[in-house]
Design brief:
Residues 23-82 form a coiled coil. The chain is of the alpha+beta class and 137 residues long. It has helices at 16-53, 58-88, 112-116; strands at 2-13, 94-106, 118-123, 126-132. Helix 1 (16-53) runs antiparallel to helix 2 (58-88).
Length: 137
Amino acid sequence: MLTITRPVLVKVRVTDDYKKNLAAELQQTVSKVELELQHLEFQARKLNELAKKNPTGAEAALAQLEQEKQRRLDTRAKLLDKIKEVGRLVNGSEVVQGKVESIVEVKVGDDWRQLMGVEIILEDGKVAEIRSLQPEG
């Protein structure tokens, strides 16, 4: 007999509360990104004013700020797309939330697929089900 760790897939069963909470989390992240964008725009305005007096090095700094701004704009667009996707999730469907590990004892003759095929299903923050792949035949 041997003791090993195995991956356990964690899924969430979609409910109205799950969609509401996920959309709120995503919206909170969008707000944070928008604040960062405002800060970058403020820094760009200050750099533009300094560049009028001393242009040395200002162009490189402005280009870097523009890259940062574009990255945040891309992030915001992706987050807004995710918010739209959340609205299209069907109640009762399952979405993968991540993986964890568990410890299992293995002995000669065990069905490997059954040992490795374990999932935890969450519903509204609680464990609703623990599934184990059943051996075939």
